[in-house]
UniProtKB/TrEMBL annotation:
<dbReference type="GO" id="GO:0016020">
    <property type="term" value="C:membrane"/>
</dbReference>
<feature type="active site" description="Proton acceptor">
    <location>
        <position position="157"/>
    </location>
</feature>
<keyword id="KW-0560">Oxidoreductase</keyword>
<keyword id="KW-0443">Lipid metabolism</keyword>
<keyword id="KW-0716">Sensory transduction</keyword>
<dbReference type="GO" id="GO:0004745">
    <property type="term" value="F:all-trans-retinol dehydrogenase (NAD+) activity"/>
</dbReference>
<feature type="binding site">
    <location>
        <position position="67"/>
    </location>
    <ligand>
        <name>NADP(+)</name>
    </ligand>
</feature>
<comment type="similarity">
    <text>Belongs to the short-chain dehydrogenases/reductases (SDR) family.</text>
</comment>
<dbReference type="GO" id="GO:0052650">
    <property type="term" value="F:all-trans-retinol dehydrogenase (NADP+) activity"/>
</dbReference>
<keyword id="KW-0521">NADP</keyword>
<dbReference type="GO" id="GO:0004303">
    <property type="term" value="F:estradiol 17-beta-dehydrogenase [NAD(P)+] activity"/>
</dbReference>
<feature type="domain" description="Ketoreductase">
    <location>
        <begin position="7"/>
        <end position="193"/>
    </location>
</feature>
<keyword id="KW-0472">Membrane</keyword>
<protein>
    <recommendedName>
        <fullName>Retinol dehydrogenase</fullName>
        <ecNumber>1.1.1.300</ecNumber>
    </recommendedName>
</protein>
<feature type="binding site">
    <location>
        <begin position="13"/>
        <end position="41"/>
    </location>
    <ligand>
        <name>NADP(+)</name>
    </ligand>
</feature>
<feature type="binding site">
    <location>
        <position position="144"/>
    </location>
    <ligand>
        <name>substrate</name>
    </ligand>
</feature>
<dbReference type="GO" id="GO:0005829">
    <property type="term" value="C:cytosol"/>
</dbReference>
Length: 249
């Protein structure tokens, strides 16, 4: 349980990558300012987080199950937090989807929006009443540079992040008068399983009905240059965790 003076921080998608690192960084804060509720949809994946948290596990870091695509799971998770009191919500969970629109089913596109857009909306709706009542809170959303700029064959992922940017920009204005902050973080490339999965998707990618010029541009220009950018400028989850820590301080 949080000590008085400690901020309760709930983070989504902590089984790997950025979410895991944010959870560990905040739980190991030298001044012990945070009580971290690290959530993941499948607690069987907790080992990496528990190992990285070390002594902080069970002290400044606890675990709860949470699938941001399920109303019931979101409700249950927040009900499990003492007094439903969350000072800082970090919406990190997200999925990517790479490929030409021609080869992606509407069902797959909806899954991306369910996670990246409605997942965030669900969480905000659930924590907002208590934050408004207490006239205090901070909501952080992990967007992406692709929430600001479209990228070839990332149409659906980009659209989901653009939608979230629009939603949050609008919400921020309404939340301001309740003293609730809403911050967006827009990372460029970060070395996580997200990147690995993207590269696997590229290897399997088919281009039915896509014109030859677009395919050539993707394979010969876009892909090699993005791999170069990843190698030269790719950040680590730790970089994003430190940035997040600064944002909430
Ligand atoms: P990872 O794939 O390593 O992590 C994604 C996390 O989201 C996993 O813990 C995953 O859980 C979780 N997740 C997916 N669906 C759900 C769900 N329905 N409910 C709860 N959790 C879920 O990727 P990253 O760490 O790189 O990505 C984290 C965030 O950062 C995402 O929002 C992504 O869009 C954003 N981002 C990433 C960039 C990058 O280059 N890596 C760049 C810019 C932004 P599970 O293990 O169960 O699948």
């Amino acid at each position: 349980m949080a000590n008085s003076g400690q901020k309760v921080v709930l983070i989504t998608g902590c089984s790997s990558g950025i979410g895991l690192r944010i959870a560990v960084t905040l739980a190991k804060d030298e001044k012990k300012r945070y009580h971290v509720i690290a959530t993941m949809r499948d607690l069987k994946k907790k080992d990496k987080l528990v190992e990285a948290a070390g002594d902080a596990y069970g002290k400044t870091l606890m675990l709860l199950p949470l699938d941001v695509c399920s109303d019931e799971s979101v409700r249950q998770c927040i009900n499990n937090v003492k007094d439903r009191h969350i000072d800082i919500l970090i919406n990190n969970a997200g999925v990517g989807l790479l490929g030409p629109v021609e080869s992606i089913s509407i069902e797959e596109m909806k899954r991306v929006f369910e996670t990246n857009f409605f997942g965030v909306v669900r969480m905000i709706k659930e924590v907002m009443p208590d934050m408004k009542k207490r006239r205090s809170g901070h909501i952080v959303v992990m967007s992406s540079v692709m929430g600001l700029q479209g990228v070839v064959f990332n149409d659906v992922y980009t659209a989901s992040k653009f939608a979230m940017e629009g939603f949050c920009e609008s919400m921020a204005v309404q939340l301001m008068k309740f003293n609730i902050r809403l911050s967006m973080i827009e990372p460029g490339p970060v070395h996580t399983e997200f990147e690995t999965k993207m590269m696997e998707d590229v290897a399997k990618m088919e281009y039915p009905g896509v014109d030859a010029d677009t395919v050539r541009y993707f394979k010969d220009v876009y892909l090699p240059s993005s791999i170069d950018i990843f190698e030269a400028m790719g950040q680590t989850p730790e970089d994003i965790a430190q940035c997040t820590k600064k944002v909430i301080e």
